Amino acid sequence: MPANDLLSYSEACAFVARRAERLARAKPAAERVRLTAAAGRVLAETLRASSDQPPFARSTRDGYACRAAEISTHGPLAVAGATRAGDAPSGPLACGVVWEIMTGAPVPRGADAVVMIEHVESAGAAAKPTIRLLPPRTIEPGENIVARGAQARKGDALLPAGTLIGAAQIALAASCGATQLTVYARPRVAILSTGDELVPIAAKPKPGQIRNSSSAMLAAMVSAAGGEPWILPIARDTLKSLDAALARAAAADLLLITGGVSAGKFDLVEPALARLGARFHFTGVRIQPGKPLVFGELPRRRDGPTIDLATNDCAGAPSFPAFFAGKGGKKMSLSYCRIDSSVQRQNGKKCSFLGLPGNPVSSAVTFLLFAAPILAALAGRLHRGPRFALARLTEDVKTKPGLTRFLPAACTFAAPVPEVACVSWQGSGDLAAMALANCYLVVPEDSDRLKAGATVRILLP
Amino acid sequence: MPANDLLSYSEACAFVARRAERLARAKPAAERVRLTAAAGRVLAETLRASSDQPPFARSTRDGYACRAAEISTHGPLAVAGATRAGDAPSGPLACGVVWEIMTGAPVPRGADAVVMIEHVESAGAAAKPTIRLLPPRTIEPGENIVARGAQARKGDALLPAGTLIGAAQIALAASCGATQLTVYARPRVAILSTGDELVPIAAKPKPGQIRNSSSAMLAAMVSAAGGEPWILPIARDTLKSLDAALARAAAADLLLITGGVSAGKFDLVEPALARLGARFHFTGVRIQPGKPLVFGELPRRRDGPTIDLATNDCAGAPSFPAFFAGKGGKKMSLSYCRIDSSVQRQNGKKCSFLGLPGNPVSSAVTFLLFAAPILAALAGRLHRGPRFALARLTEDVKTKPGLTRFLPAACTFAAPVPEVACVSWQGSGDLAAMALANCYLVVPEDSDRLKAGATVRILLP
User: Fold this and answer.
1) B348 falls in which pLDDT band (50, 70, 90)?
2) What's the mean pLDDT when you consider all of chain A?
3) 3-class DSSP state of A35
4) Contact present, A93 and A80 (Cβ < 8 Å)
5) Other C-beta atoms lying within 10 Å of the C-beta of residue A338
6) Which of A53, A76, B93, B169 could form a disulfide with B165 if both were Cys (CB 3.0 to 4.6 A apart)?
């Protein structure tokens, strides 16, 4: 296919974003998880404030609760009492007095400000202490107080369904008394590596063979992106092997296929997908690496072999039996890890698939750009795009225009200025170079050169 | 303590980096994990190439292996045979012929280049096919071939010990035949929240009380940073409660304490640490939020209560019994999650501690800036600093100079330009605002204003 028949990178992104939008409408099944196991999951309910936040007018300083108008006269005021963090609110505050208060403690009724302990002068007898605000400092009502409900009112929506749960969201849920959260089930992602040259990791490759590194890599990427990876045995470059593997894989929510999608005589994946009734959205993108990318959807097999999720469990520990067992394409039983058999099948009648190029750098880049957004949609997430940031380039980069490029790069991610440079690599099969990179430098399609010192865009892993 | 007695942000960073460097010299214990469970762990051995990579001269294209000088004459050359991916290498290639080859297949001996199938014209009878390179195109030796060993030679060091393992490193290890990896044991991080105002998550706060959100938040941050979180019961603002809690916590590799480190009358943490023989490195940094930060180290308790790691296991599932049980400061038994009792105690005679400010935004920021590098050192990682990137600011930000500020912010992380803006917040207790942020905007100490449109630095979570 000539290059100008391929989608541009931005066309492909926009298309994938629209498909993701549609896929996200079919909400995944929900399940309850402990708050402490919720990191990386996606909220399936609106988190609402269980009370006003803060639940009382709260001092943000150690000092004295007071009336701003009174204390700003700089006259001495008697210290009428003290409130520690954890005490019930005191008050009402009488006229002409202040109240000692600790950070986090409730401000007495009647007080409208807190003066910091560093800003006052103490006097008076120990039994009858007084303080005065040191001139010329004055204070305004509201200073050093967070009013009751200033952050949220009881019942307010704090987080919408679709929010990715991290440490901050866990803290917020904890503050609302949630020891469990309702989250979306993880989408199941089948991973199928194809190619007669591939042998399992534990096997010793014969001349002309290489180990299957892509399946383990993609499984780690799927897990990190919130999916449940299912690793299928390597499929061979035969009609029979591919047909059998794809029929089983179509039970997943998303199918990632590596290899077999270029223009070679034995690139049989597209015909095999077509035989299963695939609808192809696109079959190539003007990017490097990753040009021969295929995106589409398969009907779920209703008459095909049934996968018994309840009995085919790998007993807790992450493991990839068929993947390691070296059975190759011969034994076609589905293997996977960390299956929760209580979770119902998701997202209706279609299985989205991406045919990723066989080289691992190409697989990794196309996963981040296109598979991750689809996976995020299937996981019910609101925010789904690939993640980019900026950094300063330290060395010139020369390329040919015509393709948007994503070059393995190492960023310092350091202060004062994060700096990035390309990693020297021998093409998209160069695993050693990819393992030394921590991001990908984006070279726009119309660019033939990025200059040292420029602020450039990087794709975050 | 007046502000100019505090360390500047960069002084504190440099100090923590030097301590981390020293801590990293005491290597943690090592353990073997399955390759598929290695994501997020730290490599404890040098990963070496098990063979030349690639193990054979490999075609990067579908096309014809040839001699560059012969084919560049544009004369027709006979197709003498074909090699598919997975086939053993052929050859030697006779003079005046080419050899059909697929992407990933071994190049026949004698060939020095591969011409792409798109660049040739076929002719000849089906039984005696010939091809010629379409003029004016010519080809150089080496084109579309990755030479044997071009990426690595057998025995080459591919990754040093101390490398964080992610998807790319898993792929590289898989290509070397590693089904298991030797990784460092995760450092144990005790988390102790202090304060009479705190109640457990499941409890209903009385007036003046709030739920302990920090422990769950920090546990999630510790897990994400590669540590084993141990959540201790809330400690009360009494000498007895703090002394008991700290004595037990000093069995950890790192102790994170929240609250009790400001200038208030009931801020008893520093005196309690001093009673245990703490050495204080610093007790404040000119940052906002997070100024009253305390960093130091405790001697390990040899005569103190022993923690039986082997029997105190929480039986697999992540759980924080004492944390949820609501026993408060009364029951002081250590509780933790996901302990692997086979792992030996690490890193010698000292327990590093960080006293983080009690407000959750302050705790989160100081964790990222200071606790994460110490944790990374204790985990044996080579790269340890907090992670920064650049983005474009969309709204003016005004502050007062004198403190380096880390303001909760939302970044689009999107193409073409990642844009960031501060999240509206009510101070460092505002969990709701923090949960809507996905990074922190860095405002340098000498800056009073960042302008919309500027390229600014963000702290990544």
Assistant:
1) low
2) 87
3) helix
4) yes
5) 16
6) B169
Burial class (CB in 10 A: 0-12, 13-18, 19+), B364: buried
CB A358 within 8 A of CB A260: yes
User: For residue A264, which of B382, B322, B101 has the smallest C-alpha distance?
Assistant: B101
Q: Which of B90, B92, B110 is nearest to B101 (CA)?
A: B90
Q: Which residues contact A315 (CB under 8 A, 6 or more apart)?
A: none
Band (pLDDT 50/70/90 cuts) for residue A347 is: very low
CA-based max dimension of chain B: 97
Region A344-371 average pLDDT: 85
Residue B311 CB-density burial (10 A; 0-12 exposed, 13-18 middle, 19+ buried): exposed
- Chain B residues touching A389 at Cβ < 8 A: 389-391, 411, 413, 418, 458, 460
Q: Are A368 and A360 in contact (CB under 8 A)?
A: no
Q: What is the number of residues in chain A? A: 461
Q: Could you tell me the maximum CA-CA distance found in chain A, to the nearest angstrom? A: 97
Locate tokens 């709701």: which residue? B432
C-alpha–C-alpha distance, residues B440 and B368, integer Å: 10
When mean pLDDT is compared across A109-123, A308-322, A437-451, B114-128, the lowest value belongs to A308-322
DSSP B16: H
Preceding omega of A292 cis (within 30 degrees of 0): no
Secondary element (H or E) of residue B362:
helix B360-366
**Bridge pairing between strands A180-184 and A404-411:** unpaired
Instruction: Give the minimum alpha-carbon distance from B396 to chain A in angstroms, rounded to a whole number.
Output: 19
CB within 8 Å of A398: residues ≥ 6 apart? A448, A449
Structure-block tokens of residue B382: 């080579």
Residues A145-172 pLDDT 10s: 999 999 999 999 999 999 999 999 999 9
Looking at residue B120, what DSSP letter applies? E
Pairing of strands A404-411, A63-66: unpaired
Q: Tell me, what's the pLDDT at A262? A: 62
Give CA torsion, residues B419, B424, B428, B430, to 10 deg.
Answer: -120
Q: Are residues B445 and B402 in contact, defined by beta-carbon separation less than 8 angstroms?
A: yes
B375 closest CA partner among B357, B353, B358: B353
> What mean pLDDT is predicted for residues B15-35?
95
Q: Which of A388, A405, A425 to mutate to test the interface with B (most CBs of B within 10 A)?
A: A388
Residue with tokens 């939302």: B410
The tokens for B221 are: 């941050």
> Does the distance separating the beta carbons of A158 and B435 come in below 8 Å?
yes
What separation in angstroms does the CA of A422 have from each of A62, A393, B160? 51, 9, 20
**Mean pLDDT of the residues in chain B:** 87
Q: Are A370 and A353 in contact (CB under 8 A)?
A: no
> Does A432 sit within 8 Å of B158, measured CB to CB?
yes
Contact A413 B389 (CB under 8 A): yes
Q: Which of B291, B425, B346, B246 is nearest to B12 (CA)?
A: B291
The region of weakest confidence among A195-199, A268-272, A341-345, B404-408 is: A341-345
Query: Do the Cβ atoms of A36 and B318 come within 8 Å?
Result: yes
Q: How many CB atoms lie within 10 A of CB B70?
A: 18
CA within 13 Å, CB half, A324: 14
